[in-house]
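Predict the 3D structure for this chain.
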Amino acid sequence: MKIKAYKKFLISTILILLILPLLFACKIETVDEYEKRISEEEGLSDLIEVNLLVTCDVLLTEDLNKEITDYVILETSIKVPRDSTAFYALKSALKENAIPYATTGYGQTIYIYSINNICEKDYGSTSGWKYLVNDISPSVGSGAYKLDKGDCICFYYSLTID
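Done. Predicted structure below.
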């Protein structure tokens, strides 16, 4: 009887000694840590930093139908993968800061319909969201414009098409 108990003890001890190092070798990670690790393994860790401003300051001069308390909706720096688009930077920053937005279309032709519940045509038939990169209006949509390190992106609400 004592030999049987000793064998069980010995087997249990050996199993514990084999399993214990495995427990310490396993790393438990959050979803964000996992996504970061996967992107690094896939070569996407080459991030660039860009500056982003989202504003509707033109509405300061308008007789508002909506109550807007802050004309600078977002001002931040954000790191995005190299070759990201202006829209990708905007979308990432808005999501990170829980700011609602709505779009139509997709890919290179995506159109920003609303940011922070300020929609196109809220202040006239030609009003809507536009963007600048380094104070220049690009000739392509934000879903097609590829960013460079240090770019300054400004999404702004405009009352006119031009």
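Strands lie at 47-55, 72-81, 101-104, 111-115, 118-119, 128-133, 152-158.
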